[in-house]
Structure formats: structure tokens, C-alpha cells
Write a structure and sequence with these properties.
41% strand; elongated; 13-stranded parallel sheet; 30 strands; mainly beta; 491 residues
Length: 491
């Protein structure tokens, strides 16, 4: 079959059960679907499909041609899909997508379905931003197929998986699951009660490997990154990130058979691996499998968990040997080695019916609290440090407590009700450079006090008939004193 190609449309929109297809049945290979629209938008929605299928008759030996899409923006939603599929013995076609922005609310998949003996096609996506919102990106080998699921490779700057979205390579029968490799600066799996997932899983076959490279990796609300096999051996889960935050989420490698369960390796190049709210990193071996190993490397940072948050790092087994846990970091906070498990945050590498694994916690012994001064427990009562002074006419204790008086440069005491007069005398300032400068300074005369100062009590006439301030009324010596004494408190 010839290729189906579109190179012109600025906006290409498929809706209401529309198809772009290059498929074949029993004989002849399927053609390719090629959409080359780097400046445009491609919308696939409302049960519409872009597909390339082969071998619609069981046992057919035809091959799917594959799908190639280049566009600025790709949106797949409302049960729309982009897919390749094989039912024969020849591998299914591959899907390649290059775009600036991709939003998947529908499905993008390469599969080997039903009784296919051929492997499913591969899936390769490259974009600046990818959002999987309730959608699915994946490769799959069906429930009766013996072929393997294809590999998935995603390269992006930002990857967001939300509201139950998932990216997975899955083998549902005897086939092996393909590898899943994701590289991005920022990867987030954040849900609202549904399970977001990056997964490589198999039923009877061997699960492939999952490798995630990210600057920032954040999982919240039941999100999971997992490699697992229900009846066989899980692959390797490898996380390489600048920093990792798990909040009620998990890294998992789960196996039921095989010499060893899948291993988990987490390499942190930045400051922090953080677990909280029942998060876990677990290499679990069920039935007779030996426990997988958990290796955590954070040479430049710390591993942090809330002690009461029940967040665990495990390498457990049932009938096989427990796996090993190897940690290298500057310091570990909130996690402790415990057996059996508790409701606190634990390290555990036990086997229920066999030999326990080993736990090695290698830290540089850095304690951020070292060198800090301990603050006093007692709180200072600042009210006791402030003098209350005298209230009203009561001057008891003033002489013992002392006084504080503000004066201006003219030497006249100020009060809040006094007026400020600019004509007050100002004396030139003297310097100590030489003795000659002292001649310009105001003369300073020492005043000797015959008796201590007393507080003024009233007003009276003196012998010259002038009004003076007196300390007691008997100081008025003139018979002309027609002015009654007035106390200061009455002013």
C-alpha cells in the first residue's frame, strides 16, 4: 500500500469518527501515514483516528507501515487516538511524533493485539512540553499475544501527567514488556485522587527497564513509577535527578519469580531526596523470588523524611532472601533502621521466611545543627525593665529612681507643651586643634550651689515689685505683695 501523506494544512482537524489510515489485511505491507506540518496544529478528537494496521486476518504476515507526525501543536482528545497495530507474526509499525506542544487526553499507542506473535511497534516522542491528562501513551502486547511490547522513548523539557494519566509499556500474556526511557528537565505526576503512573509491566513475561532522567522530579497523591511482573522478574528502575520529592507516592520494583526481584537505583545530583505522607521506595519479592536491591546515592545532598509520616525504604521478600539497601549521602533525617516495620519512617530489608538482607547507611556525618547556640528557655518580662515614674502629685521615690530631662542648646528645659523659639542663644563650638580657638568659645562660669535646688511652689512680689517664682510663700518679703501666692499645681 502507498503512503498517506499530508504536507500543507495549517490546521488539520479530525472529528466525528474521521480516519486517516494506511492499513492492510492478509497480503502486502501497510503504508505509512506521514503528516508534515511543523507550523500548524493537528487535532484528533471525537472518536477520530490516525492509524496504520496490519494483519486484520489472524495469522497474517503483513507489516504495519508506521506513523510519522511533525507539527507545532498536537491535541488528542474526546476518545481520539493515534495507533499502530499488528495481529500477525511481523512486528507492528512504529510511531514517531515531533512537536512543540503535545496534549494527550485520548490515546497514542503501538500494540500487538489478540493472537499476534510479532512484537508491537516502538514509540518515540520529542516535544518541548507534553501533558497527559486522563490519557494514555504506551506500547502493549495483548492478552493472547506472545509477542513483546515495543520500547518507548520520550524526550521533553516538561512532562506533566495528571488526573489518572499514564505512560506504560505492558505485556499482558507471555511476551516481555519493552523498555521505557524518559528524559526531561521537569517531570511531575500529580493527581486528584486518581493514580498517575509511569510503568513497565508484564504478566508471564519479563518486565523491561524504566529509566528516568530529570532535573526536578515530583510525585503527589498516589502517583507511582514502577517496574513489575505478576509471574516473572521485574526489570530495573533507574532514576537520575537533580532533586526528588515523593508525597504519598512510590517507586516500586515488584517480582514474583526469578533469581532476583527488580532493582531500584536513585541517583540525586542536587540537594534533596524527600519522602512524606506514607511514600515508599520498595523492591519487593513475592513468592519465591529474592528481594531486589535499593541503592540511593545523594553525595551532594540529604535524604529527608518526616519521622511520623510512615514513609519507608524497603527491600523485602516472602520466601526468598531479603534484598540489600545501600545509601550514600551527607545525612539522613527522619528514617531509622527497624525490624519489624512500624508506623514511623523505616529502613527494612527483611525476609518473612528466609535470610534478611543487609542495610548499609554511609553518611559524611554532617550535622547542620552543629555549632549553633542554644537559646534560653526563660522568656524575659520586658515590663519589669521599664520604670513607672511618678504619677500626678506623688513624687515618692523620684530622688531614688533619678530623672531624665531633655534640653535644647540654650539650656532651657522642654516639655511637650512648650513653644520652640528660634532666637534662643547659640554658643559657637570650640575645637581642640589649638589654644587660639578657645577665645571664640562662649565663657563657661562655674556656679557654686550653697543649698540644694528646690521645686517651685508659687509666685510672689519681691521688694522691687517684680513677680518671682518662690519655693515657699514666705519668700515674698514686700508689704506691697498684693498678689496672692499661687501654687504651680493650680496653673
Amino acid at each position: 500500500m502507498k503512503d498517506c501523506e499530508n504536507n500543507s494544512a495549517r490546521l488539520l482537524r479530525l472529528l466525528n469518527d474521521s480516519d486517516i489510515s494506511a492499513s492492510t489485511n492478509a497480503s502486502g505491507d501497510g503504508g505509512r501515514v506521514i503528516i508534515n506540518n511543523p507550523q500548524g496544529t493537528l487535532l484528533v478528537e471525537r472518536d477520530s483516528s490516525i492509524n496504520s494496521n496490519s494483519g486484520d486476518l489472524v495469522g497474517a504476515i503483513t507489516q504495519s507501515g508506521g506513523i510519522e507526525i511533525t507539527t507545532d501543536r498536537l491535541v488528542v482528545q474526546d476518545k481520539g487516538d493515534i495507533r499502530t497495530n499488528t495481529r500477525g507474526s511481523i512486528p507492528g509499525g512504529s510511531i514517531t511524533i515531533v512537536a512543540r506542544e503535545i496534549e494527550i487526553v485520548g490515546e497514542v499507542s503501538a500494540s500487538a493485539s489478540e493472537t499476534a506473535t510479532g512484537n508491537g511497534g516502538t514509540l518515540e516522542i520529542e516535544a518541548d512540553s507534553i501533558t497527559v491528562d486522563r490519557g494514555f501513551i504506551g506500547s502493549e502486547s495483548g492478552v493472547m499475544a506472545t509477542g513483546d511490547a515495543g520500547a518507548i522513548t520520550i524526550r521533553t523539557r516538561e512532562l506533566f501527567i495528571e488526573n489518572g494519566g499514564s505512560i506504560s509499556a505492558t505485556a499482558l500474556n507471555d511476551g516481555d514488556a519493552g523498555n521505557l526511557t524518559i528524559t526531561g528537565e521537569k517531570v511531575e505526576l500529580v493527581g486528584r485522587g486518581e493514580k498517575e503512573e509511569l510503568a513497565v509491566s508484564s504478566d508471564n513475561g519479563i518486565a523491561g527497564n524504566l529509566t528516568l532522567n530529570a532535573g526536578l522530579l515530583r510525585l503527589e497523591n498516589n502517583a507511582t513509577i514502577t517496574v513489575n511482573s505478576d509471574s516473572n522478574q521485574a526489570g530495573i528502575l533507574e532514576i537520575n535527578a537533580g532533586s526528588v520529592s515523593l508525597n504519598n507516592s512510590a517507586f516500586e520494583a515488584i517480582s514474583s519469580r526469578g533469581e532476583n526481584s527488580g532493582n531500584i537505583t536513585v541517583n540525586i545530583s542536587g540537594a534533596l531526596l524527600r519522602l512524606e505522607n506514607q511514600s515508599r521506595i520498595t523492591a519487593e519479592a513475592r513468592e519465591g523470588a529474592n528481594g531486589g536491591n535499593v541503592t540511593l546515592n545523594a553525595p551532594n545532598g540529604f535524604i529527608l523524611a518526616r519521622p511520623s509520616g510512615n514513609s519507608d525504604i524497603l527491600a523485602n521478600a516472602e520466601f526468598g532472601r531479603g534484598g540489600n539497601i545501600d545509601v550514600q549521602t551527607n545525612a539522613i533525617f527522619g528514617l531509622e533502621e527497624r525490624d519489624p516495620l512500624t508506623d514511623f519512617s523505616d529502613f527494612n530489608a527483611s525476609s518473612e521466611f528466609n535470610t534478611d538482607g543487609e542495610i548499609v547507611l554511609a553518611t559524611l556525618g554532617i550535622d547542620p545543627s552543629r555549632g549553633l547556640s542554644e537559646l534560653p528557655i526563660d522568656v524575659v518580662d520586658v515590663a519589669g525593665l521599664v520604670a513607672t515614674g511618678c504619677l500626678g502629685g506623688n513624687r515618692s521615690g523620684v530622688e531614688d529612681q533619678g530623672e531624665y530631662t531633655v534640653t535644647d542648646r540654650g539650656g532651657i528645659a522642654q516639655s511637650p507643651t512648650d513653644l520652640l523659639f528660634p532666637e534662643g542663644g547659640v554658643a559657637n563650638l570650640a575645637t581642640l586643634d589649638n589654644d587660639g580657638n578657645l577665645s571664640d568659645a562662649a565663657a563657661v562660669t562655674a556656679v557654686e550651689m550653697d543649698q540644694p535646688l528646690e521645686e517651685a511652689q508659687g509666685l510672689a512680689f519681691n521688694a522691687d515689685g517684680q513677680v518671682v517664682i518662690v519655693s515657699h510663700t514666705s519668700a515674698a518679703t514686700s508689704d506691697r505683695s498684693a498678689l496672692p501666692a499661687t501654687h504651680c499645681r493650680e496653673l
